Amino acid sequence: MGSKGKKSSKDDKQYVSALQVAKHAGVSRSAVSRAFTPGASVSAKKREKIMEAAETLGYQVNDLARGLLARKSRLVGLVVTNPELGYRSHLVAALTKALIHRGSVPIVINTGRTEEELVAAQKTLFGYRAEATIILSGSPPSSFVDLARRNGQPLIVLGRSETGADDVNIDNEGAGREAARFFLADGPRRLGFAGALSRTPTTVEREYGFLHEAKLHGAAVTIGNGSNSNYAGGQEAAQQLFSGKDRPDAVFCVNDLVAFGLIDYVRRHTDLSVPEDLSVIGFDDIPEAAWDSYNLTTFRQDASVMAAHAVALLDRREAEPDHPPVHERLSTRLVQRGSTRVAAALRS
């Protein structure tokens, strides 16, 4: 077949333009632009013709080009390290959903861990002139915060605090205190804490609350720290906690992933049973915590609630750019399941 009767693949992939819509509707190019601009002046009859033409041709407004012309994009950068892990993955999902509902375009920036990866992440985020930045955890460096400030971006920080920035945090210290009181309500106990050497503000606060409350009640706490706050880190912490003679009979884990690693280690490498010999509390209440294999008692932090608060702060900051920084602290709820003796006794 000759080339005259065949469209090129390039033609097949071209997007429908506003000019094509204008020609199809019999109106000017500027009329199409006004029809898709909220509040712009265009008659109802003309708008109807334009919308019918757009529907027929499959036209979509080029928001990226419009944002560049207006010197304001709808992109919101979500800066996070290891977005695939544990609670963080659920928070990323909740934030992207909330931002899309807001009319924003979320762009997830995985910072990585090497200097090269961090530099590439920074260039990506600020090269696209995102309208705002949300930092999700304690891992991304302060250089992201400084660069956001220099670019005049609204900045929302989750799970940590930064000078001059709005933030949303969980009452981690209060949860740690509650975990200690829960364990000690049944009488004297040998307490343990499973944490991580990769300390973030949230994990430090949980540890402090647990240790301080235990001390108030005259209870000592044995600490085991894995390399990271993940499943492997939980196994490393468990090895430290249960390798000696004075093994704890109640352990507060810095998050659910650490709790899963600790429980599996105890089952495979000790003669202890959960919850008969060992009570375990986690933190986050990710879906796997309710699985029969773990049935974990844990503190619940709702990702959708945190996302809603973050987006509300973003709206407020854009409406009132000179408002003093807002610091919100959300409470948690202890969800009792079968990994603690008190909860198991109540069930039976």
TrEMBL record:
Keyword Cell inner membrane found: no
Q: Please state every residue range assigned to the domain named HTH lacI-type.
A: 16-70
SMART domains found in the cross-reference section: HTH_LACI (SM00354)
Domain of life, per UniProt, equals: Bacteria
For this protein, the record's InterPro entries field holds: HTH_LacI (IPR000843), LacI/GalR-like_sensor (IPR046335), Lambda_DNA-bd_dom_sf (IPR010982), Peripla_BP_I (IPR028082)
Q: Known Pfam families for this protein?
A: LacI, Peripla_BP_3
Please give the Gene3D superfamilies that the UniProt record associates with this protein: 3.40.50.2300, lambda repressor-like DNA-binding domains (1.10.260.40)
Q: Could you confirm whether the keyword Iron appears in this record? A: no
> What PROSITE patterns does the database record attribute to this sequence?
HTH_LACI_2
Citing just one GO molecular function, the answer is:
transcription cis-regulatory region binding
Q: What are the alphabetically sorted keywords of the record? A: DNA-binding, Repressor, Transcription, Transcription regulation
Q: Which positions are tagged coiled coil? A: none
This protein's name: Transcriptional regulator
The organism's taxonomic lineage, starting at the top: Bacteria, Pseudomonadati, Pseudomonadota, Alphaproteobacteria, Hyphomicrobiales
